[in-house]
Amino acid sequence: MRPFELVTAEDPNQAVALLSEHPDASYLGGGTNLVDHLRLGVATPTLVVDVRRLPLGEVERSEDGGLRIGATVPNADLAAHPVVRRDYPMLSRALLAGASGQIRNAATTAGNLLQRTRCAYFQDVTTPCNKREPGSGCSAVGGYTRYHAIFGASESCLAVHPSDMAVALAALDATVVVLGPAGERRIPVVDLHRLPGDEPDRDTVLAHGDLITAVELPAPSGAKSTYRKVRDRASFAFALVSVAASLDVEGGTVREARIAFGGVAHKPWRAHLAEDALAGVALDPDDPEAQEQAFLDAADAELAQASPVGGAAGDFTEGNEFKVGLLRNTLVSVLRELSAADSGAESEGTRR
Predict the structure, then answer these.
(1) 257: which strand partners?
(2) Which residue has the higher pLDDT, 347 or 147?
(3) Which of 284, 223, 213 lies closest to 89 in space, CA to CA?
(4) Is the pLDDT of residue 313 over 60?
(5) What are phi and psi of 55, to 5 degrees?
(6) Which residue from 40, 152, 165, 250 has the fewest beta carbons nearer than 10 Å?
(7) pLDDT at res. 342
């Protein structure tokens, strides 16, 4: 690990000023991502600004009936918060699906959003990686792509964003509150992260020095919602695919659907085509075949955009074509669960 200077910020404006003045500086929250990268040599800041003691650790009701979540609220505390569990079960379940209990105790709201990809090539400094070293190449192209993107990737980068929480926040239409040198602004979570294009080293639209101070959730809609993560093992594993979804059904007809995918793109992937396909669909519990077909049609509408990556010919590398079928089945299963909950067979974790 290279030596660096560590400074504890006393207030948000000081933190922004410190980082803005040092091009090689980084913020430190819970440290569950940055400390790993310091040890691996992926991150080499000369200045680290500790923001854990900033007064940003509250979860409060907003004037519009929504929820304001401070940037330093630990993931474990947010998942267990009674208002989150009652009104935003999708978010609570997504948080509980992430990492381990020990890591959730340390990880923060802002840090979770800003964690970097867990692509093995990105974390291995002996391999070329455009995200780590722009212009060096992408080792995943022609390499091992089992965990990589099927939406929105480019020849420059095939990596996926690892957050579970961010996927739920995207489906909830959450907003990120950002403090920068020019003052405060708000960014929808769906617009916070970037697709790689030819600049995969830029994960988000944030400028150097920008500090996330809070996340704001709209008032609960009353729709049934849930989060489901499919992974290689039951705990402490990143998603092969995940689905955050809510169904607002009125009079047996879908008034609104909100769907986001994880583990399949450089950012939480909001499934607008699937949502549009479900809007206005009648969900007749006495016609399960029609329901099933409607869910399959919605999944296929979104998956028509998928571009899976095969493994290298003649090599033992594994492609990610399987993610298309896996995501299709997962989405249909989740929609089936939400539909059943709306019709009266409500299960734990789908309320609201």
Answers:
(1) 247
(2) 147
(3) 223
(4) no
(5) -75, 65
(6) 250
(7) 76
Q: Is the pLDDT of residue 312 over 90?
A: no
Which 3-state string (H, E, C) describes 145-214?
CCCCCCCCCECCECCCCCCCHHHHHHHCCCEEEEEECCEEEEEEHHHHECCCCCCCCCCECCCCCCEEEE
In this prediction, residue 346 has a pLDDT band, given cuts at 50, 70 and 90, of very low
Question: How far lies 187's CA from each of 13, 181, 193, 201, 205, in Å?
Answer: 19, 16, 10, 20, 9
On average, the pLDDT of the chain sits at 94
The pTM of the whole model exceeds 0.90: yes
For the chain, percent of residues with pLDDT exceeding 90: 91
Q: Which residues contact 310 (CB under 8 A, 6 or more apart)?
A: 145, 319, 321
Six-digit token pair at 211?
């500090």
The residue type at 268: P
User: Which residues pair with residue 215 across a beta bridge?
Assistant: 69, 176
20 backbone dihedrals φ, ψ, rounded to 5°: -65, -30
Cα dist. 122→29, 138, 309 in Å? 21, 9, 18
End-to-end CA distance of the chain: 46
Q: How many CB atoms lie within 10 A of CB 22?
A: 18
Pick from 129, 226, 236, 136: nearest CA to 172? 226
CA 12 to mean position of chain CA atoms: 24
Q: Kind and range of the H or E element at 80?
A: helix 75-80
Taking 60 as the threshold, does the pLDDT of residue 122 lie above it?
yes
